[in-house]
Write a structure and sequence with these properties.
Elements (H helix, E strand, L loop, with lengths): L1 E5 L6 H12 L2 E4 H9 L3 H8 L1 H18 L3 E4 L10 H7 L3 E7 L2 H8 L15 H19 L4 E4 L5 H8 L1
Parallel strand pairs: 1-3, 1-4, 2-3, 4-5
The structure holds shikimate-3-phosphate (S3P).
Length: about 170
């Protein structure tokens, strides 16, 4: 089984993915870390030096590689992964893949991301909280139709990690 955690930036995919993998005695893979390892540079440098399109193509390639070769793994993907190319179709078509959308409200995400922008190239140019809110609100409007196709949806606002893991299990 491959369990894929999807959701917007800062929805806790990596932290929860690690905890879930431990509980299930599965391996944990974070797609951004995998890309950084394969490409030999941080995501923000890939965006800066090679551009977003290069990153999106690499993201699709590595997602497919992992789905084709791994098993008994929890995979957390980037916030944009389900929303480009046919990535969400691939995630839904493979029978041993189950996807979970960790759904957070706009205010929850703004709250979390206002102090976590620096590693995230798509947000680093935003200066005020209002700008961040406007950007994330529009982004969620565009991306939610992809996220909403996941097999399962878990609302994460005001829940502890323990509660979310229990629901995932
Ligand atoms: C992105 C999310 C990031 C990373 C890249 C692009 C996005 O991952 O893949 O900066 O398009 O939402 P996280 O969701 O882990 O921050």
């Amino acid at each position: 089984m491959i369990i894929i955690l999807i959701g917007y930036m800062a929805s806790g995919k990596s932290t929860l993915g690690k905890l879930l993998a431990k509980k299930l005695h599965y391996k944990f893979i974070d797609l951004d870390d995998y890309i950084e390892h394969e490409e030999g540079m941080p995501v923000k440098d890939i965006f800066k030096k090679k551009g977003e399109l290069y990153f999106r193509k690499a993201e699709t390639t590595y997602l497919n590689n992992i789905i084709n070769k791994e098993n008994d793994v929890v995979l957390s993907v980037g916030g944009g992964t389900p929303c480009y190319g046919n990535n969400m179709d691939v995630i839904l078509q493979v029978s041993h893949v189950k996807s979970f959308y960790l759904k957070a409200s706009l205010s929850h995400l703004v709250d979390r991301l206002k102090t976590k922008k620096s590693k995230r190239p798509l947000l680093s140019h935003l200066k005020t909280e209002d700008e961040l809110k406007e950007f994330i609100g529009k982004h969620l409007f565009e991306r939610s139709p992809y996220y909403d196709r996941a097999n399962y949806k878990i609302l994460i606002d005001n829940k502890s990690k323990k509660e979310i893991i229990k629901e995932l299990l």
